[in-house]
Amino acid sequence: MTIQAFRLTDEWVDVTAERAIIAAVAKNPALYWEVIDYLSADAFAYDETANAWQQLADAIEADQAPEAPAEWQATLEPSETAKRLADLMQRRMIADAMERLAAGMYSDRPATELLTALEEETAQAQAAIRATQTGKLTWAADLVVDVLRDAEERRRQREESGQAVLGLPTGVKRLDNIINGLNAGLYLLAGGPGIGKTTFALQIAATVTRQAPVIYLTFENSPQNMTLKALTAWASINSQDVTRGYADVNALRKAADEWRPIGERLAMIEGTGRLTVAQVRALALRAMNRHKMKRCLVIVDYLQLWAKASEELQSRRDARERVEVMGNSLRELAVRLDSPVLAIANQNRAEGRYSGNGAASLDSLKESGDLEYMADVALFLTQDDKRAITPPARAVTLTVAKNRHGDLGAVPLIFRPDKSNFGEEEWR
């Protein structure tokens, strides 16, 4: 006698419900458009019902009469049955993740590694479930209640704090006033080599950690080097002094203790060609789950390098197309996470210093394709030779060249490369 292996996913199936929804839709095809939001092909656990649903869907979408086996009884509550099948599908996703983790319990893997795997499996299950909830037909009238509730909550926050409600803060007041903080969407930070893009992104990351976790993807520097940059910026210590052995280690150690709360919410990921946007989404969900937050900030340093290295995009015909696809993927990532994604981008050096003679020009994004159209906000760091300033400080202008949700403008900054810091004009 053959003993059939037990699978936890088999506990979350209901063949009667699957047959019942198919029978109901075959009897009343108009129901198809009411339940399709809940039902994907994966909602049907059995080949018999999955094939029957696909045939039914093909017939209805071709404006033909659908059919179902006569012995299948139609449900009297099609909407509730569809919701139940969607919930069962999501439970199967969770059960599958639990089975993979349970298999690891009997391996030689350390418990700490298994705990990390648990967090990753949970995040991946969350990402898969969220993916089943996208692309649904949502009528604007159905969103009014949520819009009004959000407006009331923002009014309450403003009255309690006495300040305007913003997205995640960048730490630069004039920039936050222009863009209303960092909200869900794709933000581009462009500039030429050596202008301080990474330094500025790290500074934003440190500020955001007060309110949300940050995922920092680094393709040019190692996570250890990026952590050194962030730590020395906090301590106002020249990172070169550390690498050359001249730094005050006691002062650095004290700064590290003060900086620890930031470091606990700042995750560094070393970028490789094998890294996918889907994996980043899962890691971001894991970070949000760990810190019990509904949003995070993802920083990509930088976009063109990831697009060129990505194994997923190697089939694309050229670098321009790979950058376009990566830009679209990052904007979708922002929507899925309901969080901002800040992508660093290089400017094109083909025309003199940069397009527009170093100006903040949208057409200067290197190998951008349609990147400037995908971005919700485009920021440019450019050197300002008109403002007199004492070295090693540098005068830099941060320009908001595109803002899908508000005004444009420019913020004069002072860059201290020796201290890895940016400040507004009055700051030294």
Overview of this protein structure:
By secondary structure, the protein is α/β, with parallel strands linked by helices. It folds into two domains: 8-132, DNAb Helicase, Chain A, CATH 1.10.860.10; 167-424, P-loop containing nucleotide triphosphate hydrolases (Rossmann fold, 3-Layer(aba) Sandwich), CATH 3.40.50. The chain is built from 15 helices and nine strands. The protein has a nine-stranded mixed sheet with strand order 3-2-4-5-1-6-7-8-9, with helices on both faces. The longest helix has 28 residues, at 78-105. It is elongated. The chain starts with 14 loop residues before the first helix and ends with a strand.
Q: Which helices and strands occur, and which strands form pairs?
A:
Blueprint: H1 15-27, H2 32-35, H3 47-61, H4 78-105, H5 111-132, H6 140-161, H7 173-179, E1 185-191, H8 197-208, E2 214-218, H9 223-235, H10 239-244, H11 249-263, E3 266-270, H12 277-290, E4 297-301, H13 303-309, H14 319-337, E5 340-346, H15 371-374, E6 377-383, E7 394-403, E8 409-416, E9 421-424
Helix pairs in contact: 1-3, 1-4, 4-5, 5-12, 8-9, 9-11, 12-14, 13-14
